């Protein structure tokens, strides 16, 4: 870990920070123009997240699926693939975990909980495997196939719930407590938030992604194929298999994200008539986190914090929640424009030196 | 229902659903042919739909009557074009990753449009309904042709035909004019174009701006022919579908049109099939997922490999090797 | 603004002025449906009781399903005297918050809040509606108005709630017009006007001249299609839902009538009781024809005298119990069998 | 007398390096002027300054005696300067005619007039004897023809000063001869030419004068008639150059590669290799000579398992590897220096260290139980960097940022270090300077001395003649003859490569 710290390039760290500050500044300007009080708005966000355990807990809770979705996108990115299908993979993961928990409800917790989590990951894996296979075997562009898989997931999960796992309220029955990640301890700690044990899964996933990509031979292969399929082929690697593997692993992360919602946050799954949005947010989280596992955690925290805090901003300062989305968009633009920001920082610091 | 009756339902419905997709995917053709990936089509459609809603409302209020939605489409085209310039500046001048910028564009559009709706309509999350839509009509004369008429020329909107005509026009522009040649050269090999004195950045700005114009039109057409008001859920995935149509259509204007029509057809079929004997026995999920499953199947077999413009997604930095 | 919500726990101290709030789903307070209706109820309550909109009565909008819980929690912790969750989607969130804050008063629309043992929660007022009864009446109107003997029903998402609309409607049509064909289709979404339009197109092409849409914003597509048809000279009708949708049918005037669901009235009632210290916690309030909780829209200009008379006749029979309107497919089958 | 081009005291800095440091270049009207220097000496940079792609930090440019300010390629074109770039600037998916007229298209009613474009191209190509088919797509034509397209591009724009940046690096001997003829014809037409090349032979065949630069500085300008190759070479490197020759005795050992009646299809399903037989022994370098496009690439790819074999057998060390997976073939003893080093030889976004284990990363000692042993890899990389003299700040540097010569050294280091029984070297020295070429030649000879089999594929007859123990001539997918380098010369090889067997019969 110390070696890791040494490797940090300060510029790569500085850019997201500057971007966030710029994004927030722009948001403040918009608020001023429209006639809201930006100080009050931001104060309400910060106060709620850091001073009120409930919102702190909710922020971490919101982070759980977001970070997993972000890891899914980032993992695929690292291997040269753009997984827009996280949304669908997350949905099937959600359903599979809940279904497993309900169907095998009689099993003891030590078996049932891991099984349900694995079921979520496995379903996500399947949903990633298909576009992977289509790309490897038939050269179907993963951007289209994953978009298509999203819609297929949307309708299929709804159909399955409706016909096989229906409970009034347009949802599945509630999972047995033995499969639940929810915790009274955590809830009490955070004044009744929905914070659950899923964050442990996230920590494991973050470490796993880092370890797989940079410490294992499989990860080496995946990255090589991502950067240069041609050179990898010449070096004797199986390019097709690595594409499939990459999207499958990406799907596991996404599926786990769904499982966290199913076993942790909600304890059931509703019939979705539209996408959850978590998968698409995951794209932003990955980009903001520069596709690195640690970066995704920070980006996920920021995202979750803004979203949760945005709710208090709405109730305290009266600012429409959409402003949060605008600020997030601006932050992503700034991160993307790192070239200009770098240039500006360098100029500023040079000027500073001269003085 | 007889086959004929089924066709009189499905074909017009196909044309209606496809029109916004056609416009938007043509926008994508311009942008990506110039070498700028545009994931932001969804956002551009949102901006177009939003603009069309508020301008139609304003126009009909000032007595423009049936012309309102048409003028609104033009305004939306401009709005889309302007909005897309953000993507252009960030991804061309600031050298941002084009995917990153496109994703941000979608976020910004979703947030900004609803934010503005709330500002304009005193806190409401959606606009009122426009009263002057672009209507489905029977084309005089043509609709009287036996058999063909009722299938292709009844219950249709002019925008659908416009979309098809414009695809041909775009094909012409891209493949038959000096402008098109230059646009494509910039998307294939910007350094080569540069050495021949073609201003790479300018061509790419134009490509992206056109994608904004067309995306704006696509969103506007969706609004004035289908939804009639703007809310969060108005544009929910159509932009991504247009993106898929663009890739499906192999970055070719006519291909993109064909793919859009295919999506429109599959969707129309999925809805109408429930009223067609025998097909109605299938579980609804099969018909609902059919458009997407069919697309996957088609992509694996029949259309072969889609190849993007070579420099698509690659920022051009002068003098870099 | 209002309090900073720093107080923890749920000691609903009565020193502060009375406050009532609602948490909307993603549709927001102007969804032309129940969120809006609920908000209108709160607003008119505010007006009658000199409360300020924005502080005395207030709403929080959710942008995604995961926002329901924090939004409810925020209002509870800001010591709102009663907080409504609008829609059955919020059922489990309301239950959880109610259990965590036993002293808070909550309301839920379209669902019954229960504890782990399926007993109604003591601090939640569950507000439900007998949509089947109102739907029956518009079905009667449709059955008597159709010239083609074909009518359609467009549903949002196929589930228990919308099934009440469907079966009530079908029962009403069959009651007055046993030979009528009824086409039924669900769009699979409450926010897909394009699908609504496509389904309407299919129905109208198949010969239906009246469509009852119980599909939220998906129904907007039904209106668009009906207007298009009417403009091109083929008069068709739409029956609106939740609110009086007469205006939405203009200028082509395609709204035959609407099935109104008075969420506003229910909210107003419950809030009033809460203010008077008689919050109906633990009760399941069922709003039917009898309570004027459902019914046909006040605008009746497109409905024939004959149909109106039939409606009032059936209304009486439903209220006095001589007709039981079916809610599920099974009940509808039995109902049909009894008709013969 | 005024010069066609005079660049005075040009200075161009890049972050951290002075690419051109006070360079002066004088090109007389109607001459072919060679620009000669090591890789990275600053030749391309200087030419890019002249062509307006870079702005000089200092210095002045005179064109036909008049001071010129060149902001961009448009300015250069207006001044009559045209450039054929080191890496071709052609759009693969466009036709020849489209590539030529791009940016200055003939129009009719505002639309592209392709018919006219084709006509213009035909006329131009006839006038200068530059044979091209205007309607073919660039991706379908040979490298030689692509080069002609590049030249036509400049002529179409009316250039009278032509810059050729390493035009011959990718050409076959025949094509080089043709190019020299073309250049001479162009000069006769009144054009002036600047030619960049690493090949002394060409300079002496084609050029009138030569300017030598080293590390961004002017060394000298000389008339070709006043100098000789070894003088120029040492002027360029700054020291004496030792030419590597294959002087180790030829003692062939057991067969390492056996190719038996091999038939291979190309992407268009045409037989590109037909019933080909070939054997390479341990302890020998077998050179394959041939004109580009006669099946060399396909032969190598088939051996490496990258292309399906339709018929026939391939054996390495007696093991049948026909249609096996590439990895299996590598494990059977294949080493491979691919033709396209950037696309096939390296993962450019990997560090040098990571590239050093591209085929061995999963094996001990670089991995244990699927876990990379980064310390071992780093140590190995450091050792190879030292041993092969790779010029890089560290093993963590990305391969992308290395110069071409150093990239090639990384590949050679990796392949040689694995000590494969069979080493295939495809165009191993293309585009490299003399120093780097000799280094790599030395390494190939070392392999032979170790008793390994080396299969060398090159368009450089010189290289083939100097290194090979036996030379196999490939023509239209078949080995038409095997000759002893000691008993043949370039002329005979040239004839064989054109399909003529000894005795003057058409093969
Ligand atoms: N775009 C650039 N950015 C930074 N440095 C550059 C750039 N282009 C060239 N250089 C530097 O300038 C030096 C000269 O490069 P140049 O390409 O002119 O060499 P060259 O003489 O053409 O070599 P070769 O014979 O291999 O073509 C290089 O060593 C390199 O360090
Ligand atoms: N765009 C660039 N930015 C930074 N450094 C560069 C750039 N291009 C080249 N260099 C550096 O310049 C040096 C020499 O580059 P150059 O490409 O001229 O080498 P080369 O040996 O001439 O390659 P080639 O044989 O491919 O022409 C390398 O060390 C490389 O790191
Ligand atoms: Mg070079
Ligand atoms: Mg060079």
In short:
By secondary structure, chain A is an all-alpha fold. Chain A has helices at 2-7, 10-34, 38-51, 53-78, 86-103, 109-138, 142-164, 184-189, 198-215, 217-227, 229-234, 239-265, 278-288, 293-317, 322-336, 338-354. Chain A has one domain: ABC transporter involved in vitamin B12 uptake, BtuC.
What is this structure's SSE topology?
The complex is a heterotetramer of chains A (355), B (321), C (340) and D (507).
Chain B: H1 3-33, H2 41-61, H3 68-93, H4 98-120, H5 148-152, H6 158-176, H7 178-188, H8 190-195, H9 200-227, H10 238-248, H11 253-272, H12 284-301
Chain C: E1 20-24, H1 34-49, E2 57-61, H2 68-77, E3 82-85, H3 91-100, E4 106-109, E5 124-129, H4 131-145, E6 150-155, H5 160-176, E7 181-186, H6 193-205, E8 210-214, H7 218-231, E9 237-242, E10 255-261, H8 263-275, E11 284-287, E12 294-296, H9 305-319, H10 329-339
Chain D: E1 5-14, E2 17-27, E3 32-36, H1 43-50, E4 58-63, E5 66-68, H2 73-78, E6 81-84, H3 96-101, E7 107-108, E8 111-112, H4 114-128, H5 143-156, E9 161-165, H6 173-188, E10 192-196, H7 200-206, E11 209-214, E12 217-223, H8 229-237, E13 255-265, E14 271-281, E15 284-289, H9 296-303, E16 309-316, E17 319-320, H10 326-331, E18 334-337, H11 341-345, H12 352-356, E19 367-368, E20 371-372, H13 374-387, H14 404-417, E21 422-426, H15 434-449, E22 453-457, H16 461-467, E23 470-475, E24 478-483, H17 490-497
Parallel strand pairs in D: 3-10, 3-11, 6-9, 9-10, 15-22, 15-23, 18-21, 21-22
Antiparallel strand pairs in D: 1-2, 1-4, 4-5, 7-8, 11-12, 13-14, 13-16, 16-17, 19-20, 23-24
Helix pairs in contact in D: 14-15
Bound molecules: adenosine-5'-triphosphate (2 copies) and magnesium ion (MG) (2 copies).
Main location (chain B): membrane
Membrane topology (chain B): Multi-pass membrane protein
GO molecular function, one term (chain B): transmembrane transporter activity
**Which radius of gyration of chain D do the C-alpha atoms yield?**
24 Å
What is the first-to-last residue Cα distance of chain C? 63 Å
Q: What name is given to the CATH topology of the largest domain in chain D?
A: Rossmann fold
Number of H- or I-type helical stretches of chain C: 10
Overall spatial form of chain C: globular
Question: Numbering strands along the chain, what is their spatial order in the largest sheet of chain C?
Answer: 2-1-3-4-5-11
- Bound small molecules, deduplicated: adenosine-5'-triphosphate, magnesium ion
Shape of chain D, please? globular
Note poorly predicted spans of chain C.
1-14
Strand order in the sheet with the most strands of chain D: 6-9-10-3-11-12
Number of strands of chain C: 12
Rounded radius of gyration of chain C (Å): 21 Å
Straight-line N-to-C gap of chain D? 54 Å
Mean pLDDT of chain D: 89
Largest interface: A-B, 45 and 48 residues
Percent range for β-strand residues of chain C: 15-25%
Average pLDDT, all residues of chain C: 87
Q: Class of the largest domain in chain D in CATH?
A: Alpha Beta
How much helix, percentage-wise, in residues of chain D?
Answer: 25-40%
Which bin fits the share of residues in helices of chain C?
25-40%
Q: What summary fits the major beta sheet of chain D?
A: 6 strands, mixed
């Amino acid at each position: 870990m110390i070696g890791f710290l040494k490797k940090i390039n300060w510029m790569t760290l500085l850019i997201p920070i500057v971007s966030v500050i710029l994004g927030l500044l722009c948001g403040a300007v918009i608020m001023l123009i429209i006639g809201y009080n930006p100080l009050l708005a931001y104060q309400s966000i910060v106060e709620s997240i850091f001073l009120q355990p409930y919102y702190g807990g909710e922020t971490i809770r919101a982070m759980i699926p977001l970070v997993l979705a972000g890891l899914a996108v980032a993992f695929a990115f690292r291997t040269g693939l753009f997984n827009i299908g996280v949304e669908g993979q997350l949905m099937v993961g959600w359903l599979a975990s809940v279904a497993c928990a309900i169907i095998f409800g009689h099993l003891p917790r030590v078996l049932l909980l891991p099984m349900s989590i694995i079921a979520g990951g496995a379903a996500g894996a399947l949903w990633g495997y298909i576009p992977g296979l289509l790309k490897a075997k038939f050269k179907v562009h993963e951007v289209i196939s994953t978009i298509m898989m999203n819609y297929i997931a949307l309708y299929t999960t709804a159909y399955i719930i409706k016909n096989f796992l229906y409970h009034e309220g347009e949802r599945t029955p509630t999972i047995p407590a033995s499969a639940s990640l929810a915790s009274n301890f955590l809830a009490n700690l955070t004044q009744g938030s929905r914070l659950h044990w899923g964050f442990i899964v996230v920590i494991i996933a973050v470490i796993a992604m880092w370890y797989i990509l940079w410490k294992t031979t499989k990860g080496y292969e995946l990255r090589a194929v991502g950067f240069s399929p041609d050179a990898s082929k010449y070096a004797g690697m199986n390019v097709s298999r690595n594409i499939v593997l990459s999207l499958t692993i990406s799907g596991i992360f996404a599926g786990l994200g769904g499982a966290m919602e199913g076993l942790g946050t909600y304890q059931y799954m509703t019939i979705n008539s539209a996408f959850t949005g978590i998968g698409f947010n995951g794209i932003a989280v990955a980009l903001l986190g520069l596709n690195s596992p640690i970066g995704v955690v920070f980006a996920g925290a920021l995202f979750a914090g803004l979203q949760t805090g945005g709710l208090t901003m709405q109730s305290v300062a009266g600012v429409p929640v959409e402003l949060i989305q605008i600020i997030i968009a601006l932050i992503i633009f700034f991160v993307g424009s790192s070239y200009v920001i770098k240039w500006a920082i360098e100029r500023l610091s040079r000027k500073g030196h001269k003085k | 229902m007889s086959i004929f009756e089924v066709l009189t339902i499905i074909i017009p419905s196909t044309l209606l659903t496809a029109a916004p997709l056609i416009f938007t995917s043509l926008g994508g053709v311009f942008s990506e042919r110039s070498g700028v990936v545009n994931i932001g089509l969804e956002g551009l459609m949102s901006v177009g739909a939003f603009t069309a809603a508020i301008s139609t409302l304003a126009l009909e209020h000032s007595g423009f009557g049936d012309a309102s939605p048409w003028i609104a489409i033009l305004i939306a085209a401009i709005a889309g074009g302007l909005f897309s310039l953000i993507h252009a500046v960030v991804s061309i001048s600031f050298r941002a990753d084009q995917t990153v910028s496109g994703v941000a564009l979608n976020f910004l559009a979703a947030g900004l449009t609803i934010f503005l709706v709330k500002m304009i309509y005193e806190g409401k999350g959606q606009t009122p309904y426009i009263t002057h839509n672009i209507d489905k009509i029977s084309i005089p004369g043509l609709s009287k042709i036996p058999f063909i008429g009722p299938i292709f020329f009844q219950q249709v909107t002019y925008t659908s035909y416009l979309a098809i005509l414009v695809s041909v026009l775009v094909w012409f522009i891209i493949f038959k004019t000096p402008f098109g040649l230059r646009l494509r050269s910039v998307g294939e090999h910007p350094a080569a174009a540069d050495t021949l004195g073609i201003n790479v950045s300018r061509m790419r700005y134009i490509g992206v701006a056109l994608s904004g114009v067309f995306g704006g039109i696509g969103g506007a057409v969706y609004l004035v022919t289908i939804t009639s008001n703007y809310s969060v859920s108005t544009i929910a995935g159509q932009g991504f579908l247009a993106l898929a149509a663009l890739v499906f259509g192999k970055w070719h204007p006519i291909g993109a049109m064909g793919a859009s029509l295919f999506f429109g057809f599959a969707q129309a079929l999925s809805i109408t099939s429930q009223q067609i004997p025998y097909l109605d026995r299938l579980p609804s999920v099969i018909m609902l997922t059919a458009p997407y499953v069919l697309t996957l199947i088609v992509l694996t077999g029949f259309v072969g490999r889609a190849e993007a413009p070579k420099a698509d997604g690659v920022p051009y930095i002068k003098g870099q090797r | 603004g209002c309090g900073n919500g720093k107080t923890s726990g749920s000691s609903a101290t009565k020193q502060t002025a009375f406050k009532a709030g609602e948490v909307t789903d993603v549709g927001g307070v102007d969804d032309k449906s129940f969120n809006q209706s609920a908000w209108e109820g709160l607003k008119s309550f505010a007006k009658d009781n000199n409360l300020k909109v924005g502080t005395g009565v207030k709403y929080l909008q959710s942008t995604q399903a995961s926002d329901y819980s924090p939004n409810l929690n925020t209002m509870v912790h800001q010591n709102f005297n009663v907080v409504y969750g609008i829609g059955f989607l919020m059922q489990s969130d309301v239950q959880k918050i109610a259990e965590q804050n036993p002293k808070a008063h909550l309301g839920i629309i379209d669902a019954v809040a229960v504890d782990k043992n399926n007993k109604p929660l003591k601090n939640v007022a569950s507000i439900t509606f007998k949509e089947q009864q109102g739907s029956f009446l518009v079905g009667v109107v449709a059955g008597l108005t159709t010239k083609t003997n074909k009518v359609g029903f467009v549903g949002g998402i196929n589930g228990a709630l919308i099934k009440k609309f469907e079966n009530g409607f079908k029962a009403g049509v069959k009651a007055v017009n046993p030979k009528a064909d009824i086409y039924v289709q669900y769009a699979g979404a409450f926010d897909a006007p394009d699908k609504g339009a496509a389904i309407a197109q299919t129905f109208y092409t198949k010969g239906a001249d009246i469509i009852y849409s119980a599909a939220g914003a998906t129904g907007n597509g039904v209106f668009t299609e009906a207007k298009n048809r009417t403009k091109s000279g083929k008069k068709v009708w739409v029956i609106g839902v939740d609110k009086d949708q007469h205006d939405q049918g203009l200028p082509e005037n395609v709204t035959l009538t609407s099935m109104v669901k008075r969420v506003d009235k229910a909210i107003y009632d419950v809030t009033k009781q809460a203010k008077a210290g008689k919050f109906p916690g633990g009760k399941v309030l069922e709003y039917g024809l009898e309570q004027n909780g459902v019914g046909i829209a006040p605008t009746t200009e497109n409905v024939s005298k004959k149909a109106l008379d039939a409606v009032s006749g059936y209304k009486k029979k439903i209220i006095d119990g001589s007709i039981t309107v079916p809610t599920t497919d099974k009940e509808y089958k039995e109902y049909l069998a009894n008709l013969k | 007398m005024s010069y066609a081009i005079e660049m005075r005291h040009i200075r161009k800095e890049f972050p951290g390096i002075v690419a051109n440091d006070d360079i002066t270049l004088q090109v007389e009207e109607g001459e072919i002027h060679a620009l000669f220097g090591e890789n990275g000496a600053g030749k391309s940079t200087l030419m890019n300054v002249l062509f307006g792609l870079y702005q000089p930090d200092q210095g002045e440019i005179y064109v036909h005696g008049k001071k010129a300010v060149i902001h961009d390629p448009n300015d250069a074109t207006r001044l009559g300067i045209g450039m054929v770039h080191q890496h071709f600037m052609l759009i693969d998916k466009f036709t020849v005619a489209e590539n030529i007229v791009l940016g200055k298209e003939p129009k009719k009613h505002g639309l592209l007039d392709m018919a006219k474009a084709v006509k213009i191209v035909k006329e131009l190509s006839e006038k200068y004897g530059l044979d091209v088919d205007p309607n073919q797509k660039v991706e379908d034509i040979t490298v030689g023809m692509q080069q002609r397209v590049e030249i036509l591009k400049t002529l179409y724009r009316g250039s009278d000063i032509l810059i050729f940046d390493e035009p011959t690096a990718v050409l076959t001997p025949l094509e080089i001869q043709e190019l020299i003829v073309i250049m001479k014809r162009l000069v006769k037409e009144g054009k002036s030419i600047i030619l960049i090349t690493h090949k002394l032979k060409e300079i002496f065949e084609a050029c009138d004068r030569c300017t030598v630069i080293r590390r961004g500085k002017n060394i000298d300008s000389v008339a070709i008639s006043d100098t000789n190759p070894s003088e120029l070479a040492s002027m360029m490197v700054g020291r004496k150059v030792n030419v590597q020759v294959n002087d180790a005795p030829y003692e062939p050992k057991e067969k390492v590669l056996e190719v038996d009646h091999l038939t291979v299809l190309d992407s268009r399903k045409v037989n590109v290799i037909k019933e080909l037989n070939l054997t390479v022994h341990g302890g020998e370098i077998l050179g394959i000579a041939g004109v580009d496009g006669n099946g060399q690439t396909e032969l190598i790819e088939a051996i490496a398992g990258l292309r399906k074999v339709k018929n026939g057998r391939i054996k390495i060390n007696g093991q049948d590897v026909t249609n096996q997976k590439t990895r299996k073939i590598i494990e059977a003893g294949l080493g491979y220096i691919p033709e396209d080093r950037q696309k096939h030889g390296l993962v450019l976004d990997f560090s040098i260290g990571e590239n050093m284990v591209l085929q061995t990363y999963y094996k001990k000692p670089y991995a244990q139980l699927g876990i990379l042993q980064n310390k071992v890899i780093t140590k190995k990389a450091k050792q190879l960097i030292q041993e092969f003299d790779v010029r890089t700040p560290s093993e963590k540097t990305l391969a992308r940022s290395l110069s071409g010569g150093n990239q090639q050294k990384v590949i050679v280091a990796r392949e040689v270090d694995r000590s494969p029984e069979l080493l295939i070297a495809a165009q191993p020295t293309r585009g490299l300077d003399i120093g780097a070429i000799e280094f790599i030649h030395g390494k190939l000879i070392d392999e032979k001395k170790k008793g390994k089999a080396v299969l060398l594929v090159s368009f450089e007859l010189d290289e083939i003649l100097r290194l090979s123990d036996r030379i196999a001539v490939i023509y239209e997918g078949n080995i038409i003859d095997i000759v002893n380098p000691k008993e043949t010369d370039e002329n005979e090889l040239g004839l064989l490569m054109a399909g003529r067997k000894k005795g003057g019969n058409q093969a």
